[in-house]
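Progress report, Aim 2. The chain analyzed during this reporting quarter is listed below.
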Amino acid sequence: MPRLRLVTFNIAHGRGLRPIQGLQTKRSMQAHLRRIAALLIKLDADLVALQEIDRDSSWAGNFDHLEYLRAHSGYAFSLHGITTQRSGLFKLCYGNAFLSRYPLEEAEAVAFGKRTVGEKGFLFAEIVVGGCRVPLINLHLNYRSRKARLEQVGQIFRYLAQRHNARSPYWNVPPVVCGDFNSSGKASDATAGLLAELNYFGDYSAHPVNGRTFPSPLPARLLDFVLVPSELKVARCEVVRSLLSDHRPVRAEIEWS
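Predicted C-alpha cells for the chain:
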C-alpha cells in the first residue's frame, strides 16, 4: 500500500526560541539549522512542508536556509515559494518551502498581498507517489486577523478550484493541505472555514485531532494542521516534541485507502 510520511513545521526563520531573528551570527544560525536537519532525518519524512524559511535575508545570516537544510538532511528535491521580498540595505526574502524525496511538479508560489515585510502566502506543487498524482498546498495564514485569515482561505480555495478545473484529469486524489493556519479548529475561524470550502472536492478531515503546537515550550494552542481527503487514510498523526522553533512540528502518515 502506498504511504506518504509528511511533516509540516514552521521553523521561525531559523532563530530557535529567540524572540526575534537577527540576534545571532550566521555560524550560530547554521548550527541551529543542522539541528533541525537532524530532527528531519529522525522523523524520516518523505515530504516536509516548511514555513518562515529564508533565502539571503539580512536578518537571517544572508544565506539560503532551504539549500542548507536540504544538503544536511539528504533530500533529493527542494522548492522555495517566496512570499515576502524586499531589496535594499535591509533585504528580505522568505516564505514557504518543500523538501521531498519525490520530484516536485507544477510548482507555483502565491503571496496573499504585496507587503515587503511579513507577507504570508502558500506554495502549490504536485508529487507522484505509487503511481498516484497528489496535489499539495503548504500555507501560512495571517496571525493577527481572523477576517484576514478567512479572506486568505477564500483565495486558496479559488486557486485550487481553478487548478482542479484545469488539471482534474491528472489528479488521482483531491489536494492535501498543510501548514501554519494560525487558528484553532473553532468553527468560526480559518481551519474550519477551509475544511468547509474543501468539501467542493469531497469529505476532508483535519489532523492532528489532539495535541498543541504553539508555543513550543508550553504549548497552549493547536495551530498547525494537515487536511486530508477521504480518499486517503491517516494511519497516524502526532505533534512532535521539539524546542527548535516556537512551533512544534506535526508528522502524519498517510496511506491510500
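DSSP finds four helices and twelve strands in the chain. The two ends are 8 Å apart (CA to CA). These observations will guide the mutagenesis work planned for the next reporting period.
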